[in-house]
Amino acid sequence: VVRAAQAARAKILRAAAEYLEANPEDLELKDGFVSVRGVPGRGMSLEELGQKTFAGQRGLAPIVAEGESSIGRQAPAFTAQVVEVEVDPETGLVKPVRFLAVQDVGRAINPLTIEGQVHGGATQGLGWALMEQLVYDEQGELVTGTFLEYALPRALDVPGLEVELVEVPSELGPFGARGVGEPPIVPGPAAVANAVRDAVGVRVTELPITPERLWRTLRQG
């Protein structure tokens, strides 16, 4: 989208330069108007320019631009998470009670949408940590292939998520932005396992940390 918009902007300035008899470098595009920088009153609206180019005036074609999504290098993303849990040593049940996610998003173009992405990723991480599991029988058949057997976090399973966005722009991302959807999935399981270790003194090294698995680990010391 950014690349298409940038290409469209360049075409707009070149087309407007024909009508305004100026160099594209001397034009500015602001609030729906193209004007000659430093010359008040010399300009035209995007609507007018669009009508002229659509009609093919001065041999100009309608302004159409495309952008490709191929990315040579990804802007690296950084995230850290802290989880507080309550553990029932008698049953092995782990209940997250607080979840803090801090993420470097490069530039927060739409903070509300970004926070939603972090919430979704963090919730998926909790699912990996505590309940999501692919189980196969002796014949190699998947026995947790539907939502009836494959547990996912419900609203009541997720604590109030606190999100802090850090902005360190990356030259590799559009407007300095970094990826925000996938990174918050990754740290959650480790954060939960560390919280369990801090709470009951045993290290669980296999996911998910189900009540049965933790109960057996506690009994083994």
Note down, in words, how this protein is organized.
The chain folds into two domains: 2-59, no CATH class; 78-219, Aldehyde Oxidoreductase, domain 4, CATH 3.30.365. The strands form two sheets. It has a three-stranded antiparallel β-sheet with strand order 1-2-3. It has a three-stranded mixed β-sheet with strand order 4-5-6. It is built from five helices and six strands. The mean pLDDT is 93. It is an alpha+beta fold and 221 residues long. Helix 3 (111-130) packs across helix 4. The chain has helices at 2-20, 46-54, 111-130, 187-200, 211-219; strands at 27-30, 33-36, 43-45, 78-88, 93-104, 161-166.
Task: List its traits.
alpha+beta; Aldehyde Oxidoreductase, domain 4; 2 domains; 5 helices
The helix/strand order is HEEEHEEHEHH
How widely separated are the two ends? Answer: 55 Å
The CATH H-level homologous superfamily of the largest domain: Aldehyde oxidase/xanthine dehydrogenase, molybdopterin binding domain
Helix content: 25-40%
Write down how many β-strands occur, each being a DSSP E stretch of 2 or more residues. 6
**Any low-confidence stretches, pLDDT <50, length ≥5?**
none
Return the CATH architecture of the largest domain. 2-Layer Sandwich
Q: Strands of the biggest beta sheet: in what spatial order?
A: 1-2-3
Strand content: 15-25%
The CATH topology label of the largest domain is: Aldehyde Oxidoreductase, domain 4
The largest sheet is: 3 strands, antiparallel
